[in-house]
């Protein structure tokens, strides 16, 4: 029967045959759970009982209840940390793209934290930030002992400490992407710029920045999305205590600690839309020509 089909029909049958299994798996384990999440967000489901439709009540709770709305404030620390992370990564990538002594050592040192396990980093920085730990010891050595704080115990600085840890860990990823993009720029362009009298800063401003604009755009999307969904490091280091619960930590606790699956689903939907909005705005600001 198959051999009697036309060539075009045979191609369609073959393509559909190869796609039906992966598409079925994709729909079952990706699209269907997302659709269920949207439905749960309008109910009071706790994971066991019957679902009662609540309309937009869960969404109203997220934006009006201080306990849940506070996570947006916490996310701002990671959001602003993203720009510090990007700036440092771009700075080091630019410096190390030129002729610098021991550049390979510095490349490895900057990228190495990204290779470490998140759990190991969490425990390492727990020791670093503890009273009389690594940070306090360094500050006392520099004569700044009077400025030591309870880095993970003071609600005013705990999120700065956690955001700083995230910057240290993930900067290496942005760095290596920037470095690869800068390395792809032809050396002849730099030579022509030097002949015209351009210094390093002018080369960065008029050669590097325009050439890697798309890469900056991509890194910015990834970094901001990661900041909004920060989970691993704050969960390991503090468990979300002392005012350090991020959006994802609060969502997980709401679902599995307090059994409010409907409310947690609403929070997940909100996070999804925030990421989509950030991506659309970024594309708007950077222009469609990219």
TrEMBL record:
The cross-references to Pfam families, in alphabetical order and at most eight, read: BPD_transp_1
Q: Metal-binding as a keyword?
A: no
Top-rank taxon of the source lineage equals Bacteria
Q: Does the keyword tRNA processing apply?
A: no
- CDD domains tied to this protein: TM_PBP2
Q: Which residues cross the membrane?
A: 12-32, 76-98, 110-129, 171-192, 204-228, 261-281
Where would you say this protein principally sits, based on its record?
A: membrane
Q: How does it sit in the membrane?
A: Multi-pass membrane protein
One GO process term, biological-process aspect: transmembrane transport
Q: Which family does it belong to?
A: Belongs to the binding-protein-dependent transport system permease family.
Protein name per the record: Carbohydrate ABC transporter membrane protein 1 (CUT1 family)
Species source reads Saliterribacillus persicus
